[in-house]
């Protein structure tokens, strides 16, 4: 789980062009949108692409997205749950 | 206040027809050009797409260039003017031009550049001047008309031929798909169940001059503004669009009550239509009948502002309001009187608005000629 | 009507020049690295990193021109009239790469930059410009047209100040001239006309 969280932090920095940040700057429990990292709706869509492309997991709808993208930890949990279900 | 400019000729090419009259009649009869299409890997989607026989069979021209040529020739014919005349000012409007050439890596790839695309068209028409090109996302068409209005004031050109065109492309489809903004059914602007846009393709040409014909519709004034808020998300308050509308009202001394109807941008996305409702309310226009024509012809991008302005001018000429396709139930926080039935009456004054990516807004005030 | 260029920035492969003189670049090829310029100019605008290269250069030129001074006009009376040749073609090509049939992951963050006028939108956000705006395309800078159109907007009282210029980027080559146009002059002001813009562009 912790490895996945670290990996996701690096992915997010790369995919969302947060060059002014390091993985240590991201608190895996902090909100990603609004306050916290201050991401916007395009970032959310870009994260959906990231999950599909790299982790082969699909976020099905906006409501599910809201839950999944709460924090880095919630994304990691979502990926893990999907991967467990598929194996 | 600057002098009005007058529409002395026009043309529209969409799947609904190759003349303004054919398009106006089809829309009056509630006919839509939006059909279901299938494309891998996106799957089923709805769009308003031209038949291939609509394009000139000339291999030295791209489909879009041939569409521009056909539309300009017909508009010039309707105005009784010569396309080659050096007194003409040409203004092109396009958002993505020949973007489909990117995937083909074809020999025509130089025409990816809008300036070369426009030049190919005017050269074919034997016009020797340099065409101007506006590329301002979804407000390009209205902006191009605004630019013509502004430049015609100086008297350097006798008339402006303003032409807007964009094709349906996989590039743009995939882009809006990635934004989850393609409607799973034909777009339904301002409706409660609206779920995104339907893309369209087409071309519109409008010819403007400061010397009117007898029955001309005039463009009384123009304005543009920028939200300065977000490059792809519509403003949450509508203040940018409101700024441009208010500028138009102030310049002309009009009260909101003087505006008899609005042809809105009305893309069918949740946020655009909501933003427009807030802007209209802000300007005292929440009770003004409004339509969006995108349910008939889809979102034609750089052509949209020109095609929709021409149809709005025709509404004034024919004293007939066009219905807003796909609207059933109020779906904006400010309820708007969206036009759902054909109305006839004495219509003399209308607004055309547009808003787009990059935060831009543009507004025109159209009037049945005010005799001087 | 007398209009003046009171500030400007020229950013090209030859370096950066402003109304205050040349910006000293420690490395010759630094101008090809917008990120390095960001650090050099000590900017603090996290949004910068999310932009495509055309927009990055636009913001860099804007920062050199305005030097963090707030614009002394109401947002709605400031216009922005820009022009370029390639528009977003560089980003168009990158977005097209995400559309491969066997690797189809269209990027929303790239797509929103695939329009010529997005750089204008970014400048509007950065400097709170809300007035008249227009983006045109031409093969080479048409300074005659830019002057004509901008002057007409001033004459029609639609703007009281305007950011005008040529902004182009393709295949690593930035080519930008931004000028700030006002009705009042200071001692270093230049007349806003074709000759001034042409001489600043060299």
What does this structure look like?
Chain A contains four helices and no strands. By secondary structure, chain A is mostly helical. In chain A, α1 packs across α4. The model of chain A has no long low-confidence stretch (mean pLDDT 89). In chain B, α2 (63-79) crosses α4 (114-124), α5 packs across α10 (304-318) and α7 runs parallel beside α8 (270-282). In chain B, a hairpin with a 4-residue loop joins β14 (349-355) and β15 (360-368). Chain B folds into two domains: 5-209, 3-Layer(aba) Sandwich (Peroxisomal Thiolase, Chain A, domain 1), CATH 3.40.47; 217-368, Peroxisomal Thiolase, Chain A, domain 1, CATH 3.40.47.10. Chain C is α+β, with helices and mostly antiparallel strands. Chain C is 32% helix and 27% strand. The longest helix of chain C is centred in the N-terminal third of the chain and has 14 residues, at 53-66. Chains in contact: A-B, A-C, B-C. Chains B and C meet through α4, β5, α5, α6 and β9 of B and α3, α5, β7 and α6 of C. Chain A: It holds the Pfam family PP-binding.
Query: What is the gyration radius of chain B calculated from CA atoms?
Result: 19 Å
The helix count of chain C comes to: 7
CATH architecture of chain C: 3-Layer(aba) Sandwich
Strand content of chain B: 15-25%
Summarize the biggest pleated sheet of chain B. 10 strands, mixed
Query: In percent, how much strand structure appears in the residues of chain C?
Result: 25-35%
Structural class of chain C: alpha+beta
Describe the biggest sheet of chain C? 8 strands, mixed
- The CATH first-level class of the largest domain in chain B comes to Alpha Beta
Keywords (chain A): Phosphopantetheine, Phosphoprotein
Protein name (chain A): Phosphopantetheine-binding protein
Domain Carrier (chain A): 1-83
Organism (chain A): Xanthocytophaga flava
């Amino acid at each position: 789980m912790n490895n996945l969280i670290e990996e996701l932090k690096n992915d997010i920095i790369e995919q969302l062009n947060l060059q002014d940040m390091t993985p240590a700057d991201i608190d895996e429990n902090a909100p990603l949108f609004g306050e916290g990292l201050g991401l916007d709706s395009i970032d959310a869509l870009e994260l959906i692409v990231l999950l599909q492309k790299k982790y082969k997991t699909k976020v099905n709808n906006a409501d599910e997205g809201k839950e999944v993208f709460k924090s880095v930890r919630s994304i990691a949990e979502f990926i893990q749950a999907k991967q467990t279900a598929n194996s | 206040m600057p002098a009005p400019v007058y529409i002395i000729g026009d043309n529209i090419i969409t799947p609904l027809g190759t003349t303004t009259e054919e398009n106006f009649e089809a829309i009056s009869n509630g006919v839509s050009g939006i059909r279901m299409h299938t494309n891998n890997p996106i799957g089923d989607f709805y769009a308003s797409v031209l038949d291939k026989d609509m394009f000139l069979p000339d291999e030295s021209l791209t489909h879009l260039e041939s569409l521009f040529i056909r539309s300009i020739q017909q508009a010039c014919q309707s105005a009784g003017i010569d396309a080659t005349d050096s007194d003409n000012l040409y203004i092109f409007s396009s958002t993505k031009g020949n973007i489909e050439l990117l995937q083909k890596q074809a020999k025509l790839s130089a025409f990816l550049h809008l300036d070369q695309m426009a030049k190919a068209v005017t050269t074919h028409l034997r016009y020797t001047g340099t065409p101007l090109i506006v590329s301002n996302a979804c407000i390009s068409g209205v902006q191009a008309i605004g630019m013509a209005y502004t430049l015609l004031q100086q008297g350097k050109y006798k008339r402006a031929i303003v032409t807007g065109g964009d094709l349906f492309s996989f590039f743009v489809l995939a882009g809006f798909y990635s934004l989850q903004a393609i409607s799973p059914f034909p777009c339904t602007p301002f409706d409660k169940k609206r779920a995104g846009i339907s893309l369209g393709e087409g071309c519109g040409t409008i010819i403007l001059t400061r010397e009117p014909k007898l029955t001309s519709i005039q463009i009384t004034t123009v304005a543009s503004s920028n939200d300065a808020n977000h490059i792809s998300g519509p403003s949450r308050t509508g203040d940018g669009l409101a700024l441009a509308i208010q500028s138009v009202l102030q310049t002309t001394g009009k009260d909101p009550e003087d505006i008899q109807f609005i042809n809105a941008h009305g893309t069918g996305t949740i946020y655009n239509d909501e933003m427009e409702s807030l802007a209209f309310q802000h300007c005292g226009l929440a009770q003004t009948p409004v339509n969006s024509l995108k349910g008939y012809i889809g979102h034609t991008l750089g052509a949209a502002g020109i095609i929709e302005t021409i149809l709005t001018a025709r509404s004034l000429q024919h004293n007939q309001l066009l219905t807003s396709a796909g609207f059933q139930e109020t779906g904006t926080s400010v309820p708007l009187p969206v036009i759902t039935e054909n109305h006839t009456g004495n219509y003399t004054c209308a607004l055309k608005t547009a808003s787009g990516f990059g935060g831009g807004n543009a507004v025109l005030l159209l009037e049945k000629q005010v005799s001087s | 009507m007398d209009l003046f260029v009171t500030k400007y920035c020229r950013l090209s492969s030859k370096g950066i020049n402003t109304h205050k003189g040349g910006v000293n670049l420690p490395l010759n090829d630094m101008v090809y690295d917008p990120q390095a310029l960001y650090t050099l100019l000590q900017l603090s605008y996290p949004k910068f990193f999310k932009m495509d290269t055309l927009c990055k250069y636009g913001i860099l030129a804007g920062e050199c021109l305005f030097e963090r001074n707030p614009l002394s006009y109401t947002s709605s009376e400031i216009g922005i009239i820009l022009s370029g040749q390639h528009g977003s073609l560089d980003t168009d090509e990158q977005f097209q790469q995400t559309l491969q049939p066997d690797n189809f992951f269209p990027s929303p963050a790239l797509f929103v930059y695939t329009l010529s006028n997005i750089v204008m939108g970014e400048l509007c956000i950065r400097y709170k410009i809300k007035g008249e705006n227009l983006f045109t395309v031409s093969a080479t800078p048409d300074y005659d047209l830019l002057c004509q159109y901008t002057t007409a907007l001033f004459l029609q009282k639609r703007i009281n100040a305007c950011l005008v210029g040529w902004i182009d980027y393709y295949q690593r080559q930035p080519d930008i001239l931004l000028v700030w146009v006002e009705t009042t002059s200071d001692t270093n002001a230049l007349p806003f006309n074709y000759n001034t813009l042409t001489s600043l562009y060299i």
